[in-house]
Design brief:
- GO terms for molecular function: metal ion binding.
- It comes from Parafannyhessea umbonata.
- Pfam families: 3H, HTH_11.
- By secondary structure, the chain is α+β, with helices and mostly antiparallel strands.
- It folds into 2 domains: 58 residues, Orthogonal Bundle (Arc Repressor Mutant, subunit A); 110 residues, 2-Layer Sandwich (Histidine-containing Protein, Chain: A).
- Helices cover 44% and strands 22% of the residues.
- The chain is built from 7 helices and 6 strands.
- The strands form 2 sheets. The chain has a 4-stranded antiparallel β-sheet, sandwiched between helices.
- It is globular.
Length: 178
């Protein structure tokens, strides 16, 4: 079974499961290691599947609201302003992702939908003494954003563009990133 087929099977198993499914159970079912499952889940998330981790396993979360991928560029000092702008306009920042030339796609789930969420994220980032994922790509990064309507997503995109943060995606990025 190839990676794409295995990831489709993971989604199928999560859709049918009445309760969270552990990484170990998915690994046994699919005949791979738990680490392969962790990698597959990361790829599924980057591909737009709402796979959430709980303390009892993975679940599939469906958000029916419109979703859009924005490519952005700015320095680390503008992260708070960018995230506040998005949530203040009714968006939820699902994740942050970079497309590194050597390491490929790397992403992290965020789930930021309010100023309080953003403040908590910024505090955790500061307390951890870790750097931003976008630091690996000179400030270039992507966010999947969901909102109540396409019009809200359009307005968020316009506001990001007005601030000079929105960057056009290349043909390659449009084809490979979702």
């Amino acid at each position: 079974m190839g990676g794409g087929e295995r990831r489709a099977r993971i989604v199928e198993l999560l859709e049918k499961a009445p309760t969270p499914v552990s990484g170990g159970a998915l690994a046994r079912e699919l005949g791979v290691s738990r680490q392969v499952i962790v990698q597959d889940v990361a790829l599924l998330r980057a591909d737009g599947h709402g796979v959430a981790s709980t303390n009892r396993g993975y679940v599939l979360v469906r958000d029916r609201r419109p979703r859009r991928l924005f490519k952005l560029h700015h320095g680390p000092g503008e992260v708070a302003d960018e995230l506040y702008l998005i949530v203040d306009m009714g968006g939820t920042v699902e994740d942050t992702m970079v497309n590194h030339r050597t390491y490929g796609q790397m992403s992290a789930a965020l789930g930021l939908s309010s100023r309080r969420d953003v403040e908590r994220f910024l505090a955790e980032l500061k307390d951890s003494r870790s750097s931003l994922l976008s630091g690996t790509t000179s400030g270039y990064h992507f966010h999947h954003v969901v909102a109540d309507s396409e019009e809200d997503l359009d307005a968020i995109g316009e506001a990001l563009a007005e601030r000079g943060w929105l960057v056009p995606m290349s043909d390659y990025e449009r084809e490979t990133l979702r």
